[in-house]
Design goal:
Elements lengths: L1 E2 L10 H28 L15 H16 L3 E10 L1 E8 L13 H15 L4 E8 L3 E8 L2 H9 L9 H16 L26 E7 L9 H11 L2 E7 L5 E5 L2 E5 L3 H10 L4 E4 L5 H9 L3 E9 L1 H23 L4
Parallel strand pairs: 3-4, 3-6, 6-7, 7-10
Antiparallel strand pairs: 1-2, 2-11, 4-5, 8-9
Helix pairs in contact: 2-9, 3-4, 3-8, 5-6
Length: 335
């Protein structure tokens, strides 16, 4: 247990001072009563009667109540462990031309954006969400933030562009994770770069995940295998979501007609290598269920300090009330 206002413990000194004053007043009261009663009763030679022990119980209860109330003023805090959503999620969007295909209604891109926005709106402020877009290169569109308005605006700006480089998307997402977890590092520095960290077990980095939304068609560098290994060596899971149908459809790109279909095998390999999961979304409606499952990846049990002043206040007041009621019942007067 810790105290939010340790100086408040000084108020506990009021307790012995109050007890001493109460005893002083009680002795004076007894002397005054004795001066009136003794001559009338002629009982000077009588042996003093022993006070029942239970007469001490009500005052003791009241003193305990005041002690708890005074301790509560120091704002005690305890560490409570509770499950909650926490961490960083990087949404890596495939914005290649094939994402304009209409085998999802109205398009693959529109369906992915709608489901992603629903996912973002569900997140508490303990989860930071960033947006990466990739076609033949990857770029951070929105650094990880808990400001949902910024993330939703970034998703709205995404539009289909050129070719597909899954490797660029993964590497850009890893850079976005670095920026979120080391916000003071900056992109520009004269300092000699640190050596590459030693590899860690795949999937062991639990504070951040990458969600890769793509049809899986990879047609340009950098090397996808190397990018996937980089994520695995960092322990970062790349959860893959397949956008498209296995049968595919045709699209028009710069006057050419091209066939495009979901490449689930490639997305499955990425997920397997990083100890993540691949989920194929056969239609736009099922994307919502995919994102609901991703919430479980962010569930952690974290200890956080919780102020319990209210509990001490309730306990103290309850003891004061008990002390008063006991004194009235046993002694016929308030303590």
């Amino acid at each position: 247990m810790t105290l939010g206002w340790p100086l408040g413990l000084a108020l506990m000194l009021l307790l012995p001072i109050g007890i001493a004053l109460d005893r002083l007043i009680a002795r004076r009261r007894r002397r005054v009563l004795a001066s009136f009663v003794a001559p009338l009763a002629g009982a000077a030679a009588e042996a003093p009667r022993r006070r029942p022990a239970r007469r001490l119980v009500p005052p003791a209860i009241v003193v305990a109540g005041f002690g708890i109330l005074l301790f509560g003023l120091a704002r005690p805090e305890v560490s409570l462990s509770a499950p909650r959503l926490e961490g960083t999620v990087i949404l890596a969007f495939d914005v290649s031309a094939s994402m304009g295909a209409t085998d999802y209604a109205p398009t693959r891109m529109a369906a992915a954006k709608a489901a992603a926005k629903a996912f973002v709106e569900r997140q508490p402020d303990t989860v930071q969400v960033g947006v990466v877009a990739f076609s033949d290169s990857g770029i951070t569109v929105q650094p990880a933030t808990s400001d949902q308005a910024l993330v939703l605006a970034a998703i709205d700006r995404l539009t289909p562009q050129r070719g597909t480089s899954l490797g660029s998307g993964i590497l850009a997402a890893l850079r976005a994770v670095d920026a979120a977890e080391h916000p003071n590092q900056g992109y520009y520095t004269n300092r000699t770069p640190d050596p590459s960290p030693a590899p860690v077990p795949a999937g062991s980095h639990t504070s951040a995940i990458v969600v890769l939304l793509s049809d899986g068609e990879n047609n340009t560098g950098p090397d996808l295998g190397a990018a996937t290994r980089a994520a695995a060596d960092r322990g970062i899971r790349v959860e893959t979501v397949g956008i498209g149908t296995p049968g595919g459809t045709t699209i028009r790109v710069e006057g050419f007609t091209l066939q495009t279909a979901l490449d689930a095998a490639t997305l499955q390999r990425i997920a397997d290598a990083t100890k993540a999961t691949y989920v194929g979304a056969p239609d736009a409606a099922s994307l919502d269920a995919v994102y609901a499952n991703l919430d479980a990846s962010l569930l952690v049990t974290a200890a956080r300090p919780t102020e319990v002043t209210a509990l001490f206040a309730v306990a103290g007041l309850a003891l004061l009330l008990l002390g008063v009621l006991t004194s009235l019942a046993w002694l016929g007067r308030a303590p």
